[in-house]
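Fold this sequence, please.
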Amino acid sequence: MEIFNATGRRKSSVARVYLSEGKGNFVINGKKIEEYFPIDILQYIVKQPLEELELTKKIDVKATLHGGGFKGQAEALRLGISRALIKVNEENRSVLKKLGFLTRDPRVVERKKYGQPKARKRFQFSKR
């Protein structure tokens, strides 16, 4: 099996993912997944596409992540893995699409406007 790569994004996080045949190893920025994402829920989010297709023990994942926070990085990595799995086998698309793993979540932080303390909050109005 050759190496399949894909990109996933979420908020300001970018994940470059490389899939190859192996024993189920996860290497993220040179660290094991347990070191990089110590929270179990984030590990679960990242492994969701592989678990749904029952490929957890058959594919090695190598990824580079940058930008954003840990939650955004985990979801960017999930999108990247899902996109790469489609390149591995086109039949995976229907399963992953049904679960919503191929949708790029477009929500990002709204910019702060001038004359206001935050994006939507206003300074206190004084009539007199």
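Residues 4-99 form a domain with the Ribosomal Protein S5; domain 2 fold (CATH 3.30.230.10). The chain has a mean pLDDT of 94.
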